[in-house]
Q: What sequence folds into this?
């Protein structure tokens, strides 16, 4: 997959089958668009492409908003390539770009710079200054500018449309199974293992403290069953998102106890995939009660079918 941060860096070899949007999470709704792109690309001898924005436009419009995303940029790239996208355009939502009307965007960017011959948009997609671009405008311009346009229907699970917002809300409510079903994969968090307070090792549950990306959404505070990937190996794990209230912690941390594992992994990269929710964050009366609960969590994690 080729990645472009400036349209001027792109030299058209073949016309493009393209879709545009944030694609945060690259969930099953997004995957249905990508699958259609690859099908059309094959049928019409077009290269596939996605035009997305980085950083998220809401960081531009609301710089003080504490927006958390489902994907880091690296995660989004990996998913796009995995699903078969050949060209990824990462456009900065700068002043010049945000002032383009919908029609100017189609004419100047999609047609003149990118040579788009087939455009796929989601069921609710709008674009351009003051949201002046929509499917109706695309249909009108497609005849004049010689491209085809298709609008995808929403993908439903349990009679609900899938959206990035719904995935985000499911994670914030600890509905891991629902979130993973909408994503089509297990939600993950990655980071470098950092030094913590090392309290866990004193009670028989040494944890790896994961330093996560600041823009990455963390699920609701609590304990989770996770898959742990470290040093190219898979392990079962119990993960805590929280402040460790039993020992009067204040800072939000992400810590994972890795079953059947005893290695020094400080400063190593680690990825955890969320599989199920164990319980909400609890302030125990003492370490003895905490250990009892950890023993039970470990039993449930060992029994969980990965």
A:
């Amino acid at each position: 997959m080729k990645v472009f941060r400036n349209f001027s860096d792109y030299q058209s070899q073949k016309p493009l089958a393209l879709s545009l949007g944030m694609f945060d999470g690259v969930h099953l709704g997004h995957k249905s668009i990508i699958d259609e792109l690859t099908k059309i690309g094959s049928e019409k001898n077009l290269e596939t492409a996605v035009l997305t924005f980085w950083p998220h436009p809401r960081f531009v419009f609301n710089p003080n908003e504490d927006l958390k995303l489902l994907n880091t940029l690296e995660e989004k790239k990996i998913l796009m390539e995995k699903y078969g996208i050949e060209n990824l355009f990462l456009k900065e939502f700068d002043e010049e770009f945000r002032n383009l009307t919908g029609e100017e965007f189609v004419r100047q960017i999609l047609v003149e710079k990118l040579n788009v011959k087939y455009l796929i948009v989601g069921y609710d997609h709008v674009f351009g200054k003051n949201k002046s671009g929509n499917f109706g405008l695309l249909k009108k311009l497609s005849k004049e500018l010689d491209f085809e346009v298709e609008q995808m229907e929403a993908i439903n699970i349990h009679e609900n449309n899938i959206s990035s917002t719904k995935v985000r809300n499911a994670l914030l409510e600890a509905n891991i199974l629902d979130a993973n079903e909408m994503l089509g994969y297990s939600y993950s968090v990655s980071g470098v293992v950092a030094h913590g307070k090392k309290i866990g090792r004193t009670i028989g549950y040494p944890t790896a403290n994961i330093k996560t990306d600041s823009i990455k959404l963390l699920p609701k505070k609590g304990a989770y069953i996770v898959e742990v990937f470290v040093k190219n190996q898979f392990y079962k794990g119990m993960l805590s998102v929280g402040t460790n209230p039993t020992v009067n912690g204040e800072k939000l941390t992400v810590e994972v106890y890795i079953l059947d594992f005893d290695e020094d992994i400080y400063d190593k990269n680690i990825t955890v995939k969320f599989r199920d929710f164990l319980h909400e964050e609890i302030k125990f009366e003492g370490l003895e009660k905490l250990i009892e609960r950890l023993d039970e969590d470990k039993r449930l994690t060992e029994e969980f079918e990965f």
